[in-house]
Each structure stands twice: as C-alpha cells, then as structure tokens.
Specification:
seven-stranded mixed β-sheet; four-stranded parallel β-sheet; 36% helix; binds zinc ion
Length: 428
C-alpha cells in the first residue's frame, strides 16, 4: 500500500529529547505521517523504501524555535529606551507606542513586518501579547492564522495604575476579553487565544477575579509577568501586603496553573514562589536578553531546572532587541555564567544543549507535543545550511554548537509547521 500522507526527510538530524545532550543522527531519516513524526531512523526501514525522500544532503534538520514571551506592539521599539529600568521604560516608551494600536492601519503595518520576521527567524510558535485593543488583537490573530505559524494571542488587560490613554474600565476589559475568546477559540488549530493580564500592578482585584473565571469557564491558558524587577515587586507588596509571594496573588485569582500558565522572567522568585510554580506546573519564560537590556537582574535558571520547573526561552521584544532565538540562547548561557560566578561557582552554567532545549522543547511543550522529533510530535522543523561558517572539518556536535554562536537565522533554508513546508507569509 502506498503511504499517501507519508513524507521522509534526510539530513543530519539534531534535537534534544532530554536537555543533557544533543541527539544526533548523521545522514538520518525522519518519517512524518499526517504532520506528525513517526520516528527518526539511522537507516530507513524497509516499509518506507518505496516512498520518495526529500534529501537535504549535508544540511542539518533541527526542531523549530518557540518563543514563550513577546509583545507584538513593541516591535517598532526594538533597541530604543534601553537605558531605562522597567517601570520608567513602560511609562516613557512602551505605553505611548501601545496606545497607537487603536489605529488598525498602523497596527497592520507593524504586524505585517513582525509576522514575516517570526517566519524569517524560525520562531514557529510564539506566545504573543497584543495591547488592550480588541480590534487590533483580532487582526493580529487573523494575520498569524494566515501566515501558517502557530501561537497564542492575548488581549492585554489593564484597568489601574496605567496612563489614562491606555486604561480600560474593568467591565469593558472583561467583556472584550470574553468576546475575543468566543470569537477565536475554534477558529484555528494552530493559533489560540490566551488570557493576558499585563501584571499585578496594572490590574484591579475585580479584573483579576474576572479573568480567573474566564480562564476556568473557557479552559483558556494564561500568561503574565512575575518577579521581574525589584521596584515592581515593591509595588506588588504594597498592594497585597498579606500575600506571601507575588505568585500567590495570581494563584488566589485562579491565574497560576489552574489552566496552563506561563510566567515571564521569575528573576526574583523565592523558594516558596518556585515551589508553587512547580506544584501548579507553571512554566517560567526565561528572557535573558530583556533582563540584561533593562538591567532587571540575572535569573538563576539552574535552580529552576534543579527543582524540576518547566523553563522555556522568551525574546521579550521589545525588552529584548530581536526575535531571533540565536542571541537569546547565547544570552541564556552568558547569564548562567554570571550567576555561576556570583554564586561562588555553586550554580553550574547552562550547557549548549540545555540552552538549545529551552528554545525548542522547553518552550515547545507549552504548545503540545512540539520541540523535538520524538514519535507522535508535530513535525515542526528548520533546515539549516551552515556551510558559510564551516572553516574546519567539524563533527555535528561542533556544528550545532558553532551555529548558535557564529550562525544566525540567515542559515535557515526551510521551515516546517506540522509537516507543512511554510512559504514566506504574504499580506496585502
Ligand atoms: Zn513582557
């Protein structure tokens, strides 16, 4: 019987089913059926010998990158205002730009470039904040669906302690969030809605209560910010003096793992907060580039890994200067080395495979069976031509390690999402 829906890809296959080491198949085969990985083989089993093979020769096939934390409206601000700490950066630069997304023509221009860039850098799945604006958030959702990339889109909620021009009433915020969920929940298999309170300082208790109820009612996931910066933590403590940790506030409102939840940064999460993350299965989105740019702090990622907390990488544009996961992976390693030094060499730095894992399977696990080539996983993949950076006769372990430091997204020559070879998105 011919396997009508079977595809076979040949090349050097590298992924990280576990973070401790790269799994490498030199001249291996990936068999894909209906967009899902059947398995990876060193030699092709007889049952598949009659099927044509897409041969990528001496190129490398890796899982797609997945970004656990970006802000779509901040895309034009990349590289700006980075001499300011978090709260000043928000009020001076970020909020004025986000206010512009009431204008759909402006929004469309930004999303067009952003989504093309996501495709270009190989971020096949992303967790994306928009602004408070309903229409613009819906537009972003539809454009991401059109591109063939995957992700979650959230309408940001903020009803207190925000500039007048970027503040919603509690009622309007909840109504529009519910409307957005109803409108998008079953629209696409690859793009889904997510609840996105900006952070505790900009949401009233009534708003957080309502959002927790919506998460429960529609079984929609949640994303927000947690323990990113000392001044922010001080404000939160003043708002909720009786709560033991920042995370326990989200937890109280049903926004901390009651449905799948990602919390960005977690730089200052103490033992108690981390224990709650672990218990509730909350993902930490480690955003090292943003944390360095804004001087927010050094996330001790090794502690999170040791404690078995799920960690993925986030570019956090525009706190981060680029969507590309290549610099994020390197910044994660560099940050872990500073933490190692400052911890009296107690907290071991990240290895190459651990950082790569966080950008692929670590983040990908939030989107389902995504981020490695294990049987049953979605075939999300990037084909990498690294020949322009090969100067010696490197083995494959060296080639992948080098790619992360010396290569870039320019080395990506094909992108697959759920088995579909994705062309560059075109928008009118
Ligand atoms: Zn953020």
């Amino acid at each position: 019987m011919p396997h009508y829906k079977t595809q076979i890809y040949k090349g050097h296959i590298i992924d990280t089913p576990t973070m401790e080491q790269y799994r490498i198949y030199e001249n291996g085969y990936i068999v894909v059926e209906d967009g899902k990985v059947v398995d990876v083989f060193a030699t092709l089993p007889e049952a598949y010998l009659d099927i044509p093979v897409s041969n990528y020769g001496d190129n490398i096939i890796i899982p797609g990158f997945n970004d656990l934390h970006i802000h779509a409206p901040q895309f034009p601000n990349r590289g700006l205002c980075l001499d300011e700490p978090l709260m000043e950066w928000l009020f001076d630069c970020t909020f004025p730009l986000e206010a512009k997304f009431i204008d759909l023509e402006f929004a469309k221009k930004v999303y067009r470039v952003l989504i093309k860039e996501l495709w270009k850098v190989g971020n096949l799945r992303s967790l994306i904040y928009n602004t408070i604006h309903y229409d613009a958030t819906l537009l972003l959702f539809d454009m991401l669906v059109q591109s063939g990339l995957g992700g979650y889109i959230g309408k940001v909620n903020m009803d207190i302690e925000s500039p007048e021009y970027l503040r919603e009433s509690t009622k309007q915020s909840l109504l529009e969030t519910e409307q957005f969920i109803i409108e998008t929940l079953y629209k696409s298999d690859l793009v889904k809605p997510i609840i996105a309170p900006r952070f505790v300082p900009s949401c009233s208790p009534e708003l957080l209560t309502g959002l927790g109820q919506l998460a429960q009612k529609y079984q929609v996931p949640v994303m927000s910010h947690l323990s990113e910066e000392l001044n922010e933590i001080k404000i939160v403590k003043q708002m909720y003096p009786s709560f033991p940790t920042y995370g326990s506030i989200y937890n109280y409102f049903g926004l901390f793992g009651q449905t799948p939840t990602v919390m960005a940064h977690c730089i200052y999460s103490n033992k108690e907060e981390r224990a709650l993350m672990k218990k509730n299965g909350v993902w930490a989105a480690h955003c090292p580039s943003s944390n360095l740019n804004l001087g927010s702090g050094l996330m001790p990622v090794r502690i999170f890994l040791n404690e078995g907390i799920k960690v993925g990488l986030g570019s956090d544009v525009a706190g981060g200067g680029t969507l590309s996961m290549f610099p994020s992976i390197i910044d994660a390693i560099s940050t872990s080395k500073l933490v190692w030094l400052f911890s009296g060499k107690m907290l071991t730095p990240l290895s190459s495979s651990e950082a790569f894992y966080m950008a692929t399977k670590g983040s990908g696990s939030f989107f389902g069976n995504v981020g490695s080539f294990e049987p049953g996983n979605d075939f999300d993949a990037l084909v990498i031509d690294d020949h322009d950076i090969l100067q010696l006769d490197y083995n494959l372990q060296e080639r992948i390690e080098r790619l992360l430091y010396v290569g870039s997204h320019e080395n990506i020559i094909a992108r697959f999402v759920q088995g579909r070879n994705l062309p560059e998105p075109i928008f009118d």
